[in-house]
Amino acid sequence: MGGEGGGKLPHKLRLARWAFFPVGGGSLRRATRSLLPLSLKGRAIRKCQSAGRLLSRLGPFPYFLLPLVVFASCVDIQWGVLGDGRESEQYLQTLWQVVAASLALSVAMIGFVFEAFANATRRSLGGSLSDFTRATRLDVALWLGFAALICNGMVLLEIGHDAPGGWAALWAIFLSAATVGVALPFVFSRTVRALDFDYLVALRGRQIDTLVERAMEHQLRGQAGDMLLVQQYKARGVTRGLGVDPDYQDGIDGKASRVLFDLRIERLQRLAEPLHDGDREPVEILAALHDPVTENEVVAVKKDQGWLWKRSVEKSVRYRRQRDGDLAARRLTDELEGLHEAALAAIREYRAGDWEKISQIYSRALLAMPKATAAMDIPFAGAVASPGIFRPLGPLDRIERFLYAELVAAVKADDWDLAREVAYFPVLIAQKAADLDAPALVRAMLALYPRLYRETLTS
Amino acid sequence: MTDTRELLRERSHLHLIEWLKYTAMRQMKDRHGSREKREAGLEHVRVASRQISMLLKLAIEGRDELTFTEVFREWRQELLDDYYDYDAATADADLLHAAREDCNRLACGLAMWCQHLLASATTYADRDLLGAMFRTAASPFATPGAVAVVIERALAEDGLWTDWFLGEMSSNEVHSIPTREELLRTAVLFAAKVDPKDPSDPPFPDELLLYSADDLVETSRALAGDPQRWSVVLAPLQVTGASELAGGGSAVPDLDALSPTDDFVARLSRLETFVRDAGKAADDERRTELRAAPLSPSKIAELRASVLREIRPARIIYDLLDMHGALTDVDEPADSAGRRDISNWLPKRMLVEPTNFVGIDGVGRDLGRMIRREEVSQLVAAMPDEDPEEGGTDIRATVQSVVDRMRADDFNPSLILMPISWELQRRLVERRIDQGERTGVPSARESEFEGLFDARLPIMDQPTIPSDRLYVIDLAAAVELRQWPSDDDSGVRYEIESFTEQEASDLLEREPQVQPSGTSVDEAVELLQERVLLKLRLCWQIERANPAAARVVSVPEALRRG
Hints:
The complex is a heterodimer of chains A (459) and B (562). Chain A has 459 residues and is α+β, with helices and mostly antiparallel strands. Chain A folds into 3 domains: 11-35 and 233-322, no CATH class; 40-195, no CATH class; 326-458, no CATH class. Chain A has helices at residues 11-20, 28-35, 40-58, 85-125, 129-136, 138-156, 166-194, 197-232, 265-272, 307-315, 328-348, 352-374, 382-385, 395-413, 416-435, 439-446, 448-458, and strands spanning 238-240, 249-253, 258-263, 283-285, 292-293, 297-302, 317-321. In chain A, the strands form 2 sheets. In chain A, strands 1-4-6-2 form a 4-stranded mixed β-sheet. Chain A has a 3-stranded antiparallel β-sheet with strand order 5-3-7. Chain B is an alpha+beta fold. Chain B has helices at residues 2-28, 35-61, 65-80, 82-88, 93-118, 124-138, 144-156, 159-168, 179-194, 206-211, 213-224, 227-230, 242-246, 262-292, 297-314, 316-323, 360-381, 395-408, 422-428, 475-478, 501-510, 521-529, and strands at residues 327-329, 340-347, 415-418, 451-453, 457-461, 469-473, 479-483, 492-498, 531-538, 540-544, 550-554. In chain B, strand 4 and strand 5 (457-461) form a beta hairpin. Chain B is elongated. Classes of the chains: A alpha+beta (459), B alpha+beta (562). Chain A binds chain B through residues 274, 277-278, 407, 410-411, 413-416, 419-420, 423-424, 426-427, 430-431, 434, 437, 439, 442-443, 446-447, 449-450, 452-457, 459, and chain B through 1, 3-9, 11-13, 15-16, 18-19, 23-24, 27, 40, 43-44, 47-48, 51, 54-55, 57-59, 62, 64, 67, 435, 447.
């Protein structure tokens, strides 16, 4: 984690420096990364995902930069219609209308797809429209069409290098061709596919996979941080805690809509160590790395310490604004709950086919968990599968509860075929989990059978 | 509704059995897979067996004998099938053996649960059902040897059943978890079933016979006291009026019409004698083996390391005198009178192998405490013999005056040594020693002092200080600790001695006081062979230097403890 300078400064001066110029001081995040290193492939995938997320956060903005390429003056084109401004203008005028018509058609088709998705959502699959748009990349076709329209308009207004002919016209034609020749067929093919329920199921499955992957990674990194705090840093006065004990501790509040990003752990230890009397640690961290924090207490510190000391502790906790990916665990919970509700409805309404589709998504989510931990060389067992005291239920615990509730509903529904399907599901997952060497998942699935048996005795 | 429920009930165990058969067992005996894979298969077999046992427990509670019998049979069949034996000969027999052992242990737990419910069953029909399920669960244990093995394993690994009992208990109340007692009762019922005759083949593990024979006898007597309830573990009740059972069994049939329970009572009576005899035989055998067993060099080394490790931190007086420069190194003690020993008799079984003794560290800590007491005793013995100065009504003022006078006499008081007394401590201690404060106390020892007097004089209390006096000491001038070479610079030389029959007899002759009271000479000779003598030869002595550098103050009656 690197050392921290200023060791020879007087104590008060050092506190003041830490309180107002909080740089350096070690990193818990880096320490957890060295505990849980990613493979080369994993790192490459991570980089690609980050780039994709960045692009997705920027929305249509990058596409509206495309028309600006008309100002590129490095290319001189003087052949065919591009060499004659008048002919080029006529050509672009016609093309502009074609692009506009294509765009209108695309919008209509996208509207149609949205309707199909909304129907599927109502029926069983859940998920938000924005996720669906992002996953299908339909928005890219729209933004490209708008960019082509703007570009054509600019060139027709003689804005751009050699406009309305030359390079500017070529670029406008290129964008228009991409809209008509690539984006429109893409939208059409996606529309046709989106009418297929199986495609939507696969799409939801992929989304849930990604969520599970992120949620598991955050959970593991958080647990690794907790482990370091409890086992390694405790001796020097910093540990993980559960809450503020008002008799012995003061709380330091977090910041709203942030996640706990990092701890300047070396500095925290230097702050805590002189106050450590072997009884109770002077600094207790109340959240794990990557946990969303609110304005509630995030750190519990020994009571009655000076303002400067407290501020130094406060400044040793680093936050980051919440992003989509940071809320993976919460979103996964919401998604799973949505699926569970849909599954219960399918069982009550005797829609065995729908339940089967939902079970496919459950299956993907369940099997994604051991795969995600295996990517970090950690078996899906023990506290990884069932997080301990510092965390609420893990995704496996939730799905296990949901499945149990669905088994109970199946007993009550009195639908022979559906009951058979629901009862078979856990053993199917257990079988696949055995191949993945995930004993916790096997145990969770097989444990549903004694509970099912009890239900048949009591219902 | 009934059809669906029946279907799901059937599926709940069918899928478990199928998974055990086609996934877990197959993986465990896969000759083409790696050993690691097969071990993972064993883990999966265990997981499946555990869930099957959970389901069977629920079947017992639901009195679903049909499901219980069917599933139990299929489960055992999967694990005991001869076909797998054939396979195991070429694969890993140890894995299959472990899976079967686990299955047996879980079956024992199920039998335990049957008898647990049987203890509170109120109707004859209920007892009959539970008895039938007990007999099914106990069927794998048909010989005394099989019973002994499964009971030993069950006692060693009973966490699952503890959870079962905890599940029955109400919250916010104090309960004792009865797993062990219930397992003992199950063991006695198993034993009554196999009716052992040969003392060399007992149905109980040696540990039970050695240490819990009385519990077994007591359990056996309790069972014999209610044979109508418990005899169903041997055979079903035979009631002349079968309709009484069919009607829910709430009506109590004529006891004379029941099958005789004499056989059950007679078996328990024989078992009681058997346990007594086998227990005594096992104890004799264990003691004979222990007496003949050589001491294990690794255990001796472990004990030595533990003792020397615990002694060093116990020597607080040594650290204080070292800090104040009151140590003198010599090659050997001036005379034999200076040689002092601390002796301790220890059980020999802690130093033989194999052993079930735990707590070698505890021995080290006990000896550490003895060494500390010896240090304080020697320090007190080195104090001046003069009459103590009266503490008076204001002990604080008296001590302050003593300290002032010592300082006026060019002494530098560095320690107040006082008896344990909360009242006295309250009068003398001004405040605790702050971390890192310079008070003439080793920094690692600060927490072992009560605090400071006069802002700079450390106070320590010790239980061996006479309650009627306290000492104000200039450690640098008042005493001197002379030390000579010791083992690992611990301050002691470590010796351990065991005894043959002849050596024990000689020792008794030489030192008759070592004979334990109430024993004959022969018994004492045997007992001495079952113990070892640990001697710590102290390699230091605290001697008086300048008597004027220590003052004694009497502690008023009101401030003494008790």
